[in-house]
Write a structure and sequence with these properties.
heterotrimer, A mainly alpha (493), B mainly alpha (157), C alpha/beta (285), B: 157 residues, mainly alpha, 4 helices, C: 285 residues, alpha/beta, D-Maltodextrin-Binding Protein, domain 2, 2 domains, five-stranded mixed β-sheet, three-stranded antiparallel β-sheet, 10 helices
C-alpha cells in the first residue's frame, strides 16, 4: 500500500503527468490511423525516451499502448476500417450502429467499456500479477491447442446468414493461416516463391481489405439507394439505459481480456474475438447481433483493453513479453536498466506502481477525451460519401503499405477487398474468416508441437488436466443448444 | 473486381458461392502436391496434412451450401451501374498509376476522379479537399512517422 | 539503411546505434524495415540500391541461412562486412528440478536418447546451433521442438515441455535470477562476467560455440575509402554511452563491437557451419 501511494506520488510530478497525457493523445491518434499501430509508434519513440529517465519514459510508452488500443475502435466504428487489428471485432457491430445513425452511441460505449476493461486489468495486475504470471508456465502447446479450439468452436454461430456459410468462411481463414513457412517443418506453403508470402498473409491488410475496401466497393454500387443517416441521432452518447444493458458484457469482456492477455502467446486481437463470441453467447438480445448490437461493441472493446493490462503481467513478472507491443516496452525497460522479473515486485516497487498508476491515469484520460469527443467524431459519419469513401480507400492503401512498407501487402489488401464485397453480396460474414485466420495458425502449430512433445502419441493429451477441462468446456458449449432443444421436445411430447 | 460475379437477378447465389468455394478449395488441394518435401527424420505431422483436411472440409461444406435455400435478397444491394464500374476501375488503376505519380500523387488524382464519379460535381471543392487530405497524409506519414512512401516517375521522388 | 522487423532485438540494435551516428557522419539516418522471407527481402532491397555505402544492412545469421537455402539471393560474396554490432552468447539451460542436474548428466542423457531441444523454426539459426552443439558433444540427433521465439522457449522449459534449450542470457534473465532455470554451460570462448561459475562448453570438452551475432554490411563494389570511413564512424558511434548501456543492460558481450576483419571471419565461419548443418539435416538441395 505504501508503495502504491509512492507510485501515485510520482504521478503528481507534473512532468510525468504531461508525458502520460502526451502518450494518451498520441496513442488515440495512431490507434485510429490504419497502418500505424501502437507497436510501431512505441518502436519509433523508443530512442527518444532514453533521455527521459526510466519512470517518465515507461509512463509515456505505457500510455501510448493503453490509448492506441482504444483509438483503433474509432475508425472501426466510423468507416469500418479497424485502425488496429484488435478493433476488428468492434467493427462488426460498431459500423452497423454507425450506419443506423448511432455512431455517438457506439463511440461512447467503446470509450466506457475500454476504460473499464483497462482499469479492471490494471487492478488485477496490482493485486495478482505474480500469481497470475505463474499460470503462464502451466500453458504449453497442448493447453493452447485446447484454448484455440474453444475460440473456434463458436464460429458457426457468428456472422452471416447461415451456419454453413460461417463454417466455410472460417475454413478459408484456417487455410489462409497456413500460407507461408511452416514452423515445424520449415516447408513453404502456398507461397509460390514470392518472398512477401513466405512470412504468411499479413493480418492488417486482410482486415483493412475485408472491412474498409469491401465496404467502399459496396457503397460505390449503392450510391443512390442508401437512406440518409438521421443526423440528430448520430451525436447521442450512451445514457443509463444503455449502460444497464451493457454491464454484463463489459464485465465478461474485462475478465476474458485480462486472462487471455496474461497468456504470453495470445494478444488483444484474440481477446477481442473471444470476447465477442462470449458476449453473444451470454447475451439476452442475441437477435441484435449482426445488426448493430451495442453489447457487441462493449464486450470486445472491454476485452481488448483488458488484454493490455493482462499482457503487462508476464512482461513485468516474468520478463517475457505478452505481445509485440510489450516486447518493445520490455526492451525500453531493459535499456533503462530496469530488469523485469519476480524480483521487481520486491526490489523496485515504487517504479512498478508508478507504471500501474500511469496506466490507470491513461485509461481515465482517454475515457474523458473519448466521451467528450464522441459527438465530434460522430460527425465524420455525416461527411458526404463522395468525399468520405474515396478517402477511406486511399487511407487503406497507405495503411496496408505502412507497417511492412511492402507492396505485396497492398495486393493482399485489394484481393481481400474484392472478397469482402462478394461476401456482402452473398450473405457471408468476415467475422468467422478472421477468427479462422487469427486462431488457425495456432491450432495447427500447437497441435504439431504437442505431437512432437508427446512423441507422436495423441494420448499425451490425457495427461494434461488443463487441456482436458478446456476440451470439456468446448464440447459442452457445442452440445448444450442441442441438449436444450431435445429436452424441450421431450417435455412438449 | 469482376462485375460478372455481382448478383444477377434470378441466379441462386448460394450455388454460385458454393461453386466458387469448391473451386478454390480444389485448387488449394492440388497446390499441396507442389510443396517442397519435408526434410527426413522430423517427428510429428508433416506440412500437407492440415491444409488438405481443411480443403476436404470446405468441399463437403460447399456441397451442403449448394443444396440450401438461397437467402432473401437484400433490398439495399443494387447492381453496379456505369459509374460504380468506373469507380472500381479507378481502384484497380491505383497501383499501376503509382509507378507514374507515386503513392501521394496518385491519391490526389484518385480522390478527385472517384469523387466526381460518385456524383459530386463541385470541382473546386473536390480538388481543394483532395489536396488537403494528401497534405495531411504527407505530414502525418512522411514528416512525423518517417515512413517512406513509394514515389513515381513524375512525383514523389 | 535497411534490415528486418520493427521492434525486435535486431531493430532496436539499429535504433540504438542511430542515437549517435548522425552526429558522427553529419548525415540523417533512416531505418527501412524489409521483413519478409527471413531476410531475403532485405538482401534483395540492398542489391537494388547503388553500391555507394549509403545503404547498410544489419546482417544476422538468419540472412546467411536464407542465402544458403535460396541461391538466387545476393550471396556472401556480394557483401562487404563493415563492423559487428552485437554478440550474444548462448547458454545451455535446464529447469530447476530437471533430472539433468549437471553437464555430466546432460552428456550421458544426450548419448542415451534423443533430447527435446526448444528452438525457433526448422532450418533456422537455433536449429543449426543445436545441430552443431549435439554433434560436438556426441549426442544422438536431438529432437527440435519449434517455437515462435525466445520467450516461449523459456516458458516451455520451465513448464517441463522440453528437456533443454540454447537461450541468450537476456531472454531468460528473470528465470535465471529466480532460479527457475539453471545454466549448465555457456557456449562462448570465455566465461561470462555475469555468470562466472558457469563453465564454457570448451572447458567441458565440447568444441562448439554459439552466439547471436549482428553486424553491418554494404554491397560489393562500394569504394574502399567509403568502407573504411563507415567502419570507423560506426565503431565510434557504437562506443557512445547510450549504446554501451544498451549492450550492458541486455547482457550482451561488452566487446561486441569490432571491426570488419573479425566480423568478416566470423561471418565466413558461420556460413560454413550453416552449410554443413543444413546439408546434414537434409534441408539443402
Amino acid at each position: 500500500m505504501e508503495a502504491f501511494l509512492g507510485g501515485l506520488a510520482i504521478l503528481a510530478d507534473p512532468y510525468v503527468m504531461l508525458m502520460v497525457l502526451l502518450g494518451t493523445v498520441l496513442g488515440i491518434f495512431v490507434g485510429a490511423l490504419p497502418g500505424i499501430s501502437g507497436s510501431t509508434t512505441i518502436a519509433l519513440m523508443l530512442p527518444m525516451t532514453i533521455t527521459m529517465g526510466p519512470i517518465a519514459s515507461i509512463c509515456f510508452l505505457g500510455a501510448i499502448y493503453c490509448a492506441a488500443n482504444f483509438g483503433g475502435s474509432i475508425t472501426a466504428i466510423l468507416v469500418n476500417a479497424p485502425g488496429d487489428p484488435s478493433a476488428s471485432a468492434t467493427a462488426l457491430e460498431g459500423f452497423k450502429m454507425a450506419e443506423k445513425g448511432q455512431a455517438g452511441l457506439a463511440l461512447g460505449i467503446s470509450a466506457i467499456a475500454s476504460a473499464i476493461g483497462g482499469i479492471v486489468s490494471v487492478v488485477v495486475l496490482i493485486v495478482a500479477a505474480p500469481a497470475l504470471a505463474r499460470s503462464a508456465y502451466s500453458f504449453g502447446p497442448p493447453e493452447y491447442f485446447a484454448l484455440a479450439l474453444f475460440g473456434l468452436s463458436m464460429c458457426a454461430a457468428i456472422g452471416g446468414d447461415s451456419p454453413v456459410k460461417n463454417l466455410i468462411a472460417a475454413a478459408f481463414g484456417l487455410l489462409l493461416a497456413t500460407v507461408g513457412m511452416d514452423l515445424t517443418t520449415g516447408v513453404e506453403r502456398f507461397a509460390f516463391g514470392i518472398t512477401e508470402l513466405s512470412d504468411g498473409i499479413g493480418f492488417v491488410p486482410v482486415l483493412i481489405g475485408l472491412f474498409a475496401v469491401g465496404e467502399m466497393l459496396d457503397q460505390a454500387a449503392n450510391r443512390h439507394g442508401k437512406a440518409e443517416i438521421v443526423s440528430l441521432e448520430a451525436a447521442r452518447v450512451p445514457g443509463r439505459a444503455e449502460m444497464r444493458k451493457c454491464w454484463r458484457s463489459i464485465w465478461l469482456g474485462s475478465g476474458i481480456g485480462t486472462f487471455i492477455g496474461a497468456l504470453p502467446a495470445l494478444g488483444a486481437t484474440t481477446a477481442a474475438l473471444i470476447g465477442y463470441n462470449e458476449t453473444r453467447r451470454w447475451s439476452k438480445h442475441k437477435e441484435e447481433f449482426g445488426h448493430g448490437s451495442i453489447e457487441g461493441v462493449a464486450g470486445p472493446e472491454a476485452a481488448n483493453n483488458a488484454a493490455v493490462g493482462g499482457s503487462m503481467v508476464p512482461t513485468l513478472a516474468l520478463g517475457i513479453p505478452g505481445s509485440a507491443t510489450t516486447a518493445i516496452i520490455l526492451a525500453g525497460l531493459i535499456v533503462q536498466g530496469v530488469r523485469p522479473g519476480p524480483h521487481l515486485f520486491n526490489e523496485q516497487p515504487t517504479l512498478l506502481y508508478a507504471v500501474f498508476a500511469s496506466m490507470l491515469a491513461a485509461n481515465i484520460f482517454y475515457l474523458v477525451m473519448g466521451l467528450s469527443m464522441a459527438r465530434l467524431f460522430a460527425r465524420i459519419s455525416l461527411i458526404p460519401p463522395a468525399f468520405l469513401w474515396p478517402a477511406v480507400f486511399v487511407l487503406s492503401v497507405i495503411g496496408a503499405y505502412g507497417p511492412n512498407q511492402s507492396m505485396g501487402d497492398v495486393y493482399v489488401m485489394l484481393a481481400a477487398g474484392v472478397v469482402g464485397f462478394l461476401f456482402r453480396r452473398t450473405g457471408f460474414s468476415p467475422a468467422p474468416l478472421i477468427m479462422g485466420l487469427v486462431l488457425g495458425g495456432m491450432v495447427e502449430e500447437t497441435l504439431k508441437q504437442s505431437l512432437i512433445i508427446f512423441g507422436d502419441d495423441l494420448s499425451g493429451f490425457l495427461q494434461r488436466p488443463i487441456a482436458l477441462v478446456l476440451f470439456a468446456i468446448t464440447a459442452a458449449g457445442l452440445g448444450w443448444p442441442l441438449v436444450a432443444r431435445l429436452t424441450r421436445v421431450a417435455r412438449a411430447a | 473486381m469482376k462485375p460478372s460475379v455481382a448478383p444477377v437477378a434470378g441466379a441462386n447465389l448460394n450455388r454460385v458461392a458454393a461453386a466458387l468455394a469448391a473451386a478454390l478449395a480444389a485448387a488449394a488441394f492440388a497446390g499441396t502436391f507442389f510443396f517442397d518435401e519435408v526434410p527426413p527424420g522430423l517427428p510429428g505431422l508433416g506440412a500437407v496434412e492440415f491444409p488438405r483436411l481443411i480443403c476436404i472440409v470446405i468441399l463437403a461444406l460447399s456441397a451442403t451450401l449448394a443444396l440450401q435455400e438461397p437467402p432473401r435478397r437484400d433490398p439495399d444491394a443494387h447492381a453496379p451501374d456505369g459509374s460504380a464500374l468506373a469507380i472500381w476501375a479507378c481502384c484497380l488503376m491505383f497501383i499501376p498509376a503509382m509507378a507514374l505519380g507515386g503513392m501521394l500523387g496518385t491519391s490526389a488524382v484518385f480522390l478527385v476522379a472517384a469523387g466526381w464519379l460518385w456524383g459530386e460535381r463541385r470541382l473546386p471543392m473536390l480538388i481543394g479537399i483532395s489536396l488537403a487530405v494528401v497534405l495531411c497524409l504527407w505530414l502525418v506519414f512522411v514528416k512525423v512517422f518517417r515512413l517512406t512512401l513509394p514515389g513515381g516517375l513524375l512525383f514523389g521522388n | 539503411m535497411t534490415h528486418a522487423g520493427v521492434g525486435g532485438g535486431t531493430d532496436i540494435t539499429v535504433r540504438m546505434m542511430m542515437v549517435q551516428a548522425p552526429a558522427e557522419f553529419g548525415q540523417e539516418f533512416t531505418v527501412v524495415n524489409r521483413t519478409a522471407g527471413s531476410g531475403a527481402q532485405a538482401l534483395q532491397y540492398l542489391a537494388s540500391k547503388p553500391a555507394d555505402g549509403h545503404t547498410l544492412l544489419l546482417v544476422t545469421q538468419t540472412h546467411l541461412l536464407s542465402m544458403l537455402r535460396n541461391r538466387s539471393l545476393p550471396q556472401m560474396s556480394d557483401l562487404i562486412p563493415v563492423a559487428r554490432a552485437t554478440e550474444d552468447p548462448m547458454l545451455v539451460l535446464v529447469r530447476r528440478d530437471s533430472p539433468l542436474r549437471g553437464p555430466d548428466e546432460l552428456m550421458s542423457a544426450g548419448r542415451a536418447r534423443s533430447l527435446r531441444f526448444g528452438g525457433t523454426h526448422v532450418g533456422g539459426v537455433d536449429h543449426v546451433a543445436i545441430f552443431a552443439f549435439g554433434r560436438a558433444a556426441g549426442f544422438q540427433q536431438p529432437t527440435l521442438v519449434p517455437f515462435r521465439g525466445g520467450g516461449e522457449i523459456v516458458i516451455n522449459l520451465v513448464g517441463g515441455n522440453i528437456d533443454t534449450a540454447l537461450v541468450n542470457p537476456a531472454e531468460a534473465e528473470a528465470q535465471l535470477r529466480s532460479g527457475e532455470v539453471r545454466p549448465l554451460m555457456v557456449l562462448s570462448e570465455r566465461r561470462l562476467p555475469s555468470l562466472p561459475d558457469v563453465p564454457t562448453g570448451k572447458e567441458l570438452g565440447i568444441n562448439s560455440t554459439a552466439a547471436t551475432v549482428r553486424g553491418y554490411c554494404v554491397l560489393k563494389g562500394t569504394p574502399e575509402d567509403r568502407v573504411a570511413r563507415l567502419e570507423q564512424g560506426l565503431i565510434r558511434a557504437m562506443e557512445s554511452g547510450v549504446y554501451k548501456d544498451y549492450l550492458r543492460n541486455t547482457g550482451q558481450s561488452p566487446d561486441s563491437v569490432t571491426g570488419r576483419q573479425a566480423w568478416g571471419a566470423q561471418l565466413t565461419s558461420f556460413f560454413e557451419e550453416g552449410r554443413e548443418a543444413l546439408t546434414a539435416l537434409g534441408l539443402l538441395r
